[in-house]
Amino acid sequence: MLRFFASNRSFAKIARQTGLRSTAYKYSTTKKTKPTFHEVSDASEESHTGQFINKVSKPYTVTTYARPNLVLTHGKGSYIYDLENRKYIDFTAGIAVTCLGHSNEGITEILKDQSEKLIHCSNLYYNLPAGELASKLIHKTKEHNGLNDASRVFLCNSGTEANEAALKFARKYGKVKGGDSKTEFITFANSFHGRSMGALSVTPNPKYQSPFVPLIPGIHVAEPNNIESVKNSMSSEKTCGVIIEPIQGEGGVNSMDETFLVELRKLCNDHDVLLIYDEIQCGLGRSGKLWAHSYLPNETHPDIVTMAKALGNGFPIGATMITEKVENVLSVGDHGTTYGGNPLGARIGSFVVDEITKEPFLVNINEKSAKFVAKLNQIAETNPDKVLKVKGKGLLLGLQFAENIDINKIVEKCRENGLLIITAGMNTIRFVPALNIPDEAIDDGLAILEHCIEQ
Ligand SMILES: Cc1ncc(COP(=O)(O)O)c(C=O)c1O
Questions:
Q1: How many C-beta atoms surround the C-beta of residue 37 within 10 A?
Q2: Which of 104, 169, 227, 427 has its CA 20 to 30 A from that of 12?
Q3: How far apart are CA 254 and CA 389, in angstroms?
Q4: Is 278 in the pocket of ligand 1 (CB under 6 A)?
Q5: In the structure, what pLDDT confidence band is assigned to residue 4 with cuts at 50, 70 and 90?
Q6: Tell me, what's the pLDDT at 42?
């Protein structure tokens, strides 16, 4: 059986803090060899989980998320545990964030050490870790065939903020080069760039945008992998930037064709438009190279790359990396942040970049990816009426299902069997595990998935 007892201490502590009763849970444990799919439903309303959610958490939390009855308490590597002491294989990594796994010892050490030195000092002054992270990102990016003109980094706290900075930098560039009319952007159908007003304006999903219109004007939505649709929206006079995910994450794990990206670069050059690659989900090793754009020839690289998620392994941090061409239009005071580049986050970011670029980390990602893809292909072949295709690159993978299949039911079944997975657009189940996920967790997790699809 896949479920294990976890320490009851964390629950007991929360129960004490919240005044809930503490009971020892009686899930049997058998030494694990192969999963045997003993299904356990999500915690009931009467359980401590149910009581905590309904009495302590939900009534006081803004209604922005739909969540199952699951309260996560701790994790180690690619395994995560809930308040009911259930153990799960984690194929979500907090939505492509915990790239080195949960409770990574190196990060724990940095958190302790740096918190005893300096957590925050604002951008009124320089600090060592922020400078070190900025220079490391530039040098490692060049070593790994990334952004060939990489020159400067702006540090912030999330993916949305990294994109917000990118959009502002492109606006500034457009205004400097073409005056007040060169302020428009091109984005792509099914892309996701964040929820602030700027990032939301280039995230053309009616579900996210409709409640908040009017958004920023002058945004054109082109079709991914369709250069004609970009040509129709671009003009030298009006367009200042194009923002694109080289592999769309939320939108359904959709890869952009290399030929399309090459043509897109050329088009941007012809119209003096900045090209922004949002690598917040697909960057920092997830594609199997340091950057998704590391697969492309140098001359086709973008002008701006945004990153976040994996950079902090769960600590909130984001960054916008630019070329000298962009740096040249920026002045003191154009942008800023209180927390961005704080010594604690920056030191964690440096550690993560070191780990990802240390041999053979990237090689291993590709081996793990091959293992995933082989099994996903086999699942697709044995379920041709349900599964349409396997998508993605590295450890940003997707399984697209036929329209009549309710993938939320599969996600639920998997959870009940001890596997956490997430969905993406186009009826796709998305796999974004820790980049160092052990082979055993891949095998066990995909066995659970196969079982739940076949049911
Ligand atoms: C490609 C992409 N861009 C931007 C974001 C927004 O990042 P954050 O949630 O850190 O603000 C996300 C988050 O899922 C993303 O996947």
A1: 16
A2: 104
A3: 11
A4: yes
A5: very low
A6: 87
pLDDT in tens, 360-385: 999 999 999 999 999 999 999 999 99
Confidence of residue 38 (pLDDT cuts 50, 70, 90): low
What residue's CA is closest to ligand 1, atom 4? 193
Q: Which of 425, 92, 431 is nearest to 252 (CA)?
A: 425
372 close to ligand 1 (CB < 6 Angstrom): no
Average pLDDT over residues 63-83: 96
- Concatenating the DSSP letter of every residue in 54-95 gives IIIIGGGS-S-----S--EEEEEBTEEEETT--EEEESSHHH
Cβ of residue 160 lying under 6 Å from some atom of ligand 1 = yes
Choose the residue to mutate in 193, 203, 279 for probing ligand 1, maximizing ligand atoms within 8 Å of C-beta.
193
H-helix or E-strand spanning residue 187 = strand 184-188
Helix axis angle for 128-143 and 343-357, nearest 10°, is: 20
Per-domain boundaries in the chain: 108-357, 359-397
Bridge-based pairing state of the strands 239-244 and 274-278: parallel
Choosing from 277, 280, 305, 320 the residue with most ligand 1 atoms within 8 A of its CB, the one to mutate for a pocket test is 280
- Correct CATH for 108-357 of 3.40.920.10, 3.40.640.10, 3.40.30.10, 3.90.550.10: 3.40.640.10
Q: Is the pLDDT of residue 89 over 50?
A: yes
Task: Report the chain's mean pLDDT, rounded to a whole number.
Answer: 93
Give the integer Cα–Cα distance in Å for 191 and 425: 10
Distance set, CA 416 to CA 50, 80, 174, 452 (Å): 16, 14, 51, 10
| pLDDT classification of 306: cutoffs 50, 70, 90 | very high
Per DSSP, the three-state class of 409 is helix
Collapsing DSSP to helix, strand or coil, 215 comes out as coil
For the chain, what percent of residues have pLDDT higher than 90?
89
The amino acid sitting at 129 is P
At 67, the amino acid letter reads: R
pLDDT tens-digit series, residues 123-163: 999 999 999 999 999 999 999 999 989 999 999 999 999 99
The full DSSP string for 237-300 is TTEEEEEE-SEESTTTSEEPPHHHHHHHHHHHHHTT-EEEEE-TTTTTTTTSSSSGGGGS-GGG
Helix 343-357 / helix 105-117 crossing angle, nearest 10 deg:
150
Measured in whole angstroms, how far is the alpha carbon of residue 29 from the centre of its chain?
33
The predicted pLDDT at position 5 comes to: 34
